[in-house]
Design a protein that fits this description.
globular, 2 domains, three-stranded parallel sheet
Length: 159
């Protein structure tokens, strides 16, 4: 068994993060769900990729497929996420912690913290990448995943 954690955090939301999420929920409740994702794009992808029409269209289409109700559920779950940092040491399977260097939603420090506290964890930082690493840098993420899944977890400490 292995675990891959991508662009995530073990910390609970700050009051500021919760307020932002609540404002987006309120916007979507007012019938402006399609306006939520364009507002989030600068936090979701690398600034240099905002002009990438195929990437932004894919992100917008994904949000549309997920839909408003799932968006509400996701945001509420994240807003109520417990502080899991003290539990990280209980993870004993090989773990990959991967993040985009320019992830504005879950900064590199959150990934570094998790990788430090999880035994046998390996941290991989994807350069020129924001929060949606698999969408922004699919070739890099796929290469990392292939290497990690094929590596001997004992010899390589998880990667």
């Amino acid at each position: 068994m292995r675990l891959a954690l991508m662009d995530t955090s073990a910390r609970p939301d700050t009051p500021e993060q919760t307020a932002l999420r609540q404002a987006l929920i309120d916007l979507a409740r007012r019938g402006e769900f399609k306006g939520v994702t364009p507002r989030l794009l600068p936090q979701l992808i690398h600034p240099d990729r905002l002009g990438d029409g195929s990437l932004t269209a894919a992100v917008l289409a994904m949000a549309e497929r997920v839909g408003r109700d799932a968006f509400f559920r996701q945001q509420r779950l994240i807003m109520n996420r417990p502080d899991s940092r003290r539990d990280l040491g209980l993870i004993h399977c090989p773990t990959l912690v991967l993040c985009g260097r320019q992830d504005a939603r879950t900064p590199l420090a959150a990934s570094e913290e998790m990788a430090e506290k999880i035994p046998r964890a390996a941290l991989v930082v994807v350069e020129d990448c924001g929060h949606l690493a698999p969408m922004e840098r699919p070739h890099a993420v796929t290469a990392v995943m292939r290497h990690w899944l094929q590596a001997d977890p004992v010899r390589h400490g998880g990667v």
